[in-house]
Amino acid sequence: MALSETDETGGEATSLHQRILADISERILSGEWPPGHRIPFEHELTEQYDCSRMTVNKALSQLAKAGLIERRRRSGSFVRRPQSQAAVLEIHDIRVEVEALGLPYRYERVSRRERKGNQGDRALLGLDTPEQVLVLEGLHFAGKRPFCLEDRVISLQAVPEAAEESFLDVAPGPWLVARVPWNSAEHRIRATAADKATAAVLDIAVGSPCLVVERRTWSAGQPVTHVRFTYAADNHTLVARFTPSQT
Known about the structure:
It contains seven helices and eleven strands. By secondary structure, the protein is an alpha+beta fold. The protein has a six-stranded antiparallel beta sheet. A three-stranded antiparallel beta sheet has the order 1-3-2, with helices on one face. The chain starts with 10 loop residues before the first helix and ends in an 8-residue tail after the last strand.
């Protein structure tokens, strides 16, 4: 039986508008419609929901305003790649970033190696002498898609209990924040092009622009960890708030 439609400002038209919003949002947030997927054309949705073009247009406009879809003139509407925001001067939890997008979060450990720190490790951590370190590589997911690649070195002199942790069920970032009272941090931000290995892990094309955020933290003057986060450039934004300096 066809659904009837009343005035566009209320009644059944409002219910249809909400139904279209809910149906499309659910398909996007569940990953059924991935980034780049073309949304059915307005006339197709009009037929599917047996409603006016105005009702469909209103729903699509709201989805575009929410950042879920991108409307392209003469081409139709497409699912946007979710874009997160992170404060430059904060140590944030990537889980919070992903869940703020309305997507399910998952962390996957790729590799774990304990070793005596080499020259590269010492440079990353700012160590003067060799010491045992834990080297971790992990992947953060937003829904079904890779969201961020994490490469981390932890000083086992600063955090000896990390040697007993597998990091299979928990990402190292929140684990460290909960155990080590860091009191100093440094951020470095740069752009790069995805090499073959990074492109494969993040499921992007070789040469795609990436945003790299590197961070070192210290506790009581002792180096704790160096981490490098690599994001596909079109799904992450860094935000900084500041005020004028006072003379």
